[in-house]
Design a protein that fits this description.
Length: 151
């Protein structure tokens, strides 16, 4: 996957910090997945829409080309499964790191990644149920998932 614009990572730092609270990184082995969440949906007609915990569908009508979905994954998964109404969706991921103040940001040399920020391009798909799931690379081998209806 490809690196992401530093400005975009910084923009999500506050959202991620609020979502995670004041957690800090430790020097332990790779953490199992602990959270997956759709953070935002972006479209030309609606701009960025923040997605609240437990929100089942977008408030704005994003239908149209160039819809992007931003997902935060905390911990380490094997291989994410992503789709819109069952059709595979492509995207990129960028590691995110935690600092002592609890904020997440783009990783720099010497900092430990605690998860990933994924950006999925719906490639002209108009609307539907977006799904994301992944299974931890280590014990307990749990699978986490999230879904959101994008209208």
């Amino acid at each position: 996957m490809y690196c992401m614009n530093k400005r975009l990572i910084a923009m999500f730092g506050v959202s991620i910090a609020l979502f995670l609270g004041a957690h800090t990184a430790s020097a332990a082995s790779a953490a199992p997945l602990s959270q997956v969440k759709v953070l935002k949906v972006e479209s030309p007609g609606c701009g960025f829409e923040d997605i609240a915990q437990g929100q089942e569908q977008t408030r704005c009508n994003h239908s149209g080309p160039n819809i992007k979905v931003y997902v935060l994954e905390v911990g380490y998964g094997r291989s994410a499964h992503v789709g819109l109404d069952g059709f595979e969706v492509n995207g990129t991921r960028t590691p995110v790191c935690a600092f002592d103040n609890g904020n997440l940001t783009e990783c720099t040399v010497g900092k430990k990644a605690v998860g990933y920020l994924y950006v999925f391009d719906l490639s002209g798909k108009q609307e539907g149920t977006f799904t994301f799931s992944n299974t931890s690379i280590n014990a307990p081998g749990n699978t986490l998932s999230t879904q959101l209806y994008i209208k």
